[in-house]
Amino acid sequence: MIERLSEPATASMWCRKMRTQGLQIGLVPTMGALHEGHLSLVRRALQENDRVCASIFVNPLQFNEHSDLLSYPLSPDQDVQLLDRIGCHMVFFGTLDAFFPQLKPEQIPMQEPGPYSLGLEGDSRPGHFAGVATIVKRLFEVTKPSRTYFGEKDFQQSLVVRDLARKMGYPEVVVCQTSREPGGLARSSRNRGLDDIQRRHARCLSVALRCTRSAWQAGERDAQILESLLWESLDNAGVEIVYATLRDPDQWTKQAPKGYLVRAQALVAARIGGIRLIDNMRLDSTAELDSGDSESSRQAIG
Ligand code: PAF
After folding, report:
1. Pairing with 251, which of 95, 98, 122, 294 sits 20 to 30 Å away (CA)?
2. Whole-angstrom Cα distance, residue 266 to residue 204?
3. 9 alpha carbon to ligand 1 midpoint, in Å?
4. Ligand 1 midpoint to CA 266 (Å)
């Protein structure tokens, strides 16, 4: 039976007890409204750790639009059931008050999110990554996990978190491949806001990414040509593009690189029916995998 805790202090005690027994903890931070993508992170964490803790906290600090925070989907009881069913050991829910006792939101010391927060999501959602880094740091401090699991769908977030973990000296960050629905749509809690037609339409994000990847596989290496392919594919599909661009994943830059690319990650953000969706794909020549369970990259700390 899963342990359901609502205070960081009790979650911290639970984790300390596990650690004193020599058990390794895997942490899966979430904002709830769990889907198969989250569950695949938990399953992966269960394979690699003695105990797994998931956190569910819709973090107000990372929402730059209040209306977005208010409309964020919530299903806490169903989430706990799903986690329990797959064998997750502990789930804890936070509140801003519990994470930062006696501080008003504006008094909370915000974590500097570092160089990977520049550009794209950082430009489009001012303050977002400072909010993410601030709460993820607290989650690490509370649980002191050996490993933590993030989805590659939030590619830029995974870079920000890796950088934070590197600075803190722990935990090992495991980034798992994006989990996709059969038509290719990246799984996201926000997909719940799409109706059937919009959901089908939203597949065009992964189609555009795949089309750009095919050009890469056919030998195209020019940043501007690849970017215009990505842009055109989305534009033809009639979505409202927020950004559609490339980055060198190993040398993050605020601006898009120009000219010949050695490595490239294609990244998109678009609105469909008012819902903001993001997706990305590594432009490489590996065979395509559809599940979120099978590939990951690791960040060894220390
Ligand atoms: O990816 C998310 O769900 C959130 O950004 C996270 C990492 C749980 C921090 O609130």
Report:
1. 294
2. 14
3. 20
4. 21
Between CA 271 and CA 159 the distance in angstroms is: 23
Catalytic site includes residue 66: no
Ligand 1 mean position to 94 CA, how many Å? 13
Pocket test for ligand 1, best of 125, 135, 153, 189 (most atoms within 8 A of CB): 135
159 and 14 part of one domain: yes
Is 194's C-beta closer than 6 angstroms to any atom of ligand 1?
no
pLDDT in tens, 208-266: 999 999 999 999 999 999 999 999 999 999 999 999 999 999 999 999 999 999 999 99
14: tokens are: 């639970």
> Please, is 274 exposed, middle or buried when counting C-beta atoms within 10 Å of its C-beta (0-12, 13-18, 19+)?
exposed
The closest of 275, 212, 282 to 242, measured between CA atoms, is 275
CATH number at residue 169: 3.40.50.620
